[in-house]
Write a structure and sequence with these properties.
Blueprint lengths: L1 H64 L2 H17 L1 H8 L16 H11 L4 E6 L4 E4 L19 H10 L7 E9 L5 E12 L2 E10 L2 H7 L10 E5 L25 H7 L4 E6 L5 E11 L2 E10 H4 L1 H30 L4 H6 L4 H7 L1
Antiparallel strand pairs: 1-2, 1-5, 3-4, 4-5, 6-9, 7-8, 8-9
């Protein structure tokens, strides 16, 4: 009897253990599949909103660079610059908007009117530049005002590169974009620029440009609803530096934090996928990735979540299964003790498939 009971219990324990392992593996696969699908969805949504944001900027550049009021501001500022240089620009900006010839009747100054326009569209700054590269107008009135973007101190800045890219021959609605770089006139903070040509009739007379703030991009990428405790989406440029802020850092990580994970390299090479990598914090994460392209610039768009958070439900189930299996083992040991050390009635022995003689012999 002892041998029969021991074999039966061992078989039962092994079967339960195997079933538990299979169940755990299947649940872990389901959890990982759900997390992967969710990250891909979050990535697709963020990229879609980001694409809409930049396409809106493109449309605004084409629209406003062709407005008569922009041409009028350029000509007014050019005349003032020719007469008095930088001081002339300041004086012209203080003129009422009615001084323009574009049918504007506002008594509000040109500076205040354009500043209100910039705030409404959430631009950090607006620049009007003549065809010689002279910055004739800027809302923020920073150090770039009245400088030349071909041979001046900011010729190698993002704004200077944007202007030179629009100097070459192109279409009337051509739009150029300059990726984030540190911009000295703005306290050396990261700045990106987008701009379009200004025409008077068929004559190219300058460039209308906007300094893009980081806040709208961060609002898109840092929207954390549905991302759990450790999920985030962010952007990385082709230099491996972040183009949006990390949700885990209290200070800005744009152009400061380097990300060298394989998912970044694959996204920048045009691939789409998801895999487990070590992120910029040194933590294993599920990383979904795609490229984002706009006007010749490519960024990697990533949606990530810590592996520990993804597999936590499966681990919790495993713990409960282990506790349950332990309880079954204890019950089996107790049952074995009862069967081997307590006199078993003949009817019960017969029910268990044992002979009374076996029971007596074993006892």
């Amino acid at each position: 009897m002892r041998r029969s009971i021991n074999i039966s219990l061992v078989i039962a324990f092994v079967v339960l253990l195997l079933l538990g392992v299979v169940f755990h593996r299947e649940q872990q696969k389901r959890v990982e599949a759900q997390a992967s699908g969710h990250l891909k969805t979050m990535l697709m949504l963020r990229k879609s909103v980001l694409q809409s944001h930049f396409e809106s900027l493109r449309s605004e550049m084409i629209l406003w660079s062709s407005q008569a009021v922009v041409v009028d501001v350029l000509r007014l500022m050019q005349s003032a610059f020719d007469r008095q240089g930088r001081a002339g620009l300041a004086a012209a900006g203080a003129l009422p908007a009615s001084a323009l010839r574009a049918g504007v009747s506002d008594t509000e100054s040109i500076d205040k009117r354009v500043a209100r326009f910039a705030a409404h569209h959430d631009y950090y700054d607006i620049f009007i530049i003549n065809s010689n590269g002279d910055v004739l107008y800027t809302v923020a009135k920073e150090a770039a005002s009245a400088t030349n973007l071909i041979g001046g101190p900011y010729a190698d800045s993002g704004l200077g590169r944007l202007f030179r890219s629009l100097m070459s021959e192109g279409t009337r609605d051509q739009v150029a974009f300059e990726d984030f770089s540190n911009f000295a006139p703005s306290n050396d903070e990261p700045a990106a620029f987008i701009g379009s040509r200004i025409y008077s009739g068929d004559e190219w007379i300058g460039v209308y440009a906007v300094q893009i703030p980081t806040r709208p991009i961060n609002e898109i990428m840092q929207f954390s609803s549905g991302m759990g405790e450790t999920g985030e989406t962010y952007l990385v440029g082709d230099d491996g530096l972040m183009r949006s802020d990390s949700r885990f850092f209290s200070e800005s990580s744009i152009l400061k934090t380097t990300v060298t994970s394989p998912s970044v390299a694959k996204a920048l090479s045009g691939e789409v996928g998801i895999e487990i990598v070590e992120d910029y914090r040194g933590i294993p994460v599920y990383s979904a990735y795609q490229p984002f392209d706009f006007e010749g610039t490519r960024w990697a768009v990533l949606a990530e979540q810590d592996v520990a958070e993804v597999v936590a439900p499966a681990k919790d189930t495993l713990k409960r299964m282990a506790m349950g299996f332990g309880s079954i083992v204890l019950f089996g040991i107790l049952l074995r003790f009862i069967l081997l050390h307590i006199v078993v009635p003949a009817s019960l022995a017969a029910f268990l498939g044992l002979s009374l003689m076996d029971s007596i012999d074993d006892a």
